[in-house]
Amino acid sequence: MSSYHKLAAVAFATFVVFQAPAFAADSKDAVVAKVGDLEIHQSELDLAVSNLDPQLAQLPDDQKKVAALSAAIDVKLLAKDALAEKLNETPDFKTRMAYLQDRELHNAYFKKHVVDVVTPEEVKARYDKEVAALPKQEEIHARHILVKTEDEAKEVIKELDAGKDFAALAKEKSTDPNKSDGGDLGYFARGRMVKEFEDAAFAMPVGSYSKTPVKTDFGYHVIKVEDKRDAPPPPLDQVQDQVKQLVMRDKYLELLAKAKAASKVEISDPALAKGYEDANKQQQPGAAPADAGQLQPQPQQ
Questions:
Q1: Which of 102, 186, 189, 283 is a good FRET partner for 43, with 20 to 30 A between their CA atoms?
Q2: End-to-end CA distance of the chain
């Protein structure tokens, strides 16, 4: 992923993080605490909970509420003193409030036009697109018998040549913990096993077993290849949230593209202008599938 692509991704993630649920105060919005003549309503406590520091957000619900209420009370206390000093009338405060308002309006618009309108059909279509773009990766289903010495491995091969069942021999002679499963290693792709084992296994045809012992740091192996296939993609239900993020990213970038087309953006600093232009070239919705590896097939056992 390019540095500009990363920048765009971070910007998107940052705006998503700033999405705080809005809780409108109404007659059912109970007062949970009073600070002098000021009230803290349930809606404010809910907002405080949703904006807790990530470490505090891991606490049990009752502890989160206590931490959030404590923070809300602290805010009310000092905010009251700040108003008494008219800090809300300073230029710096007004500038910050204008920025915060713009940010919250951005988030409200994002929620209305992106988060709330994503459909299951769009997620499924994007999943299909990502799956189609995944590179083919061969997997094999193999068994093995692990023994300590080369002579023991050669003896195993002789028994296999004589017609002995591979799984039965594994249960009888293998020193690997999976011996009770007949030496079954399930399906695996390259990179999952040590190189010597992997090279030998992937070179063998389906249904064959190794005619010479395969030496690794673990000992001597006799390998049988049961099957070969292209690795299946992860099921949609395993990556649904991930794919939904991709759909939302594209919707978000489409909104930005329309907004930028309607309003001219001018940046006075040449270096910033160049950086902004380069970053925006990476923000083309739907231009390409996710980066390679974003939807990695899961190992099948």
A1: 102
A2: 31
How many alpha carbons lie under 13 Å from residue 74 in its C-beta half-sphere? 7
User: Domain-by-domain residue ranges, the chain?
Assistant: 3-113, 138-230
- The residue-averaged pLDDT of 201-215 equals 97
Distance CA 34, CA 42 (A): 12
Residue-wise pLDDT for 33-68, tens only, equals: 999 888 999 999 999 998 888 888 888 989 999 999
- pLDDT (0 to 100) of residue 183: 96
Q: Quote the longest CA-to-CA distance of the chain.
A: 95
- Per-residue confidence band for 76, with pLDDT thresholds at 50, 70 and 90: very high
Angle, CA 98 vertex, CA 267 and CA 112 arms, to 5°: 90
Predicted pLDDT at 202: 96
Cβ 156 vs Cβ 145: under 8 Å: yes
Average pLDDT over residues 279-299: 53
Q: Count the neighbouring beta carbons within 10 Å of the beta carbon of residue 6.
A: 12
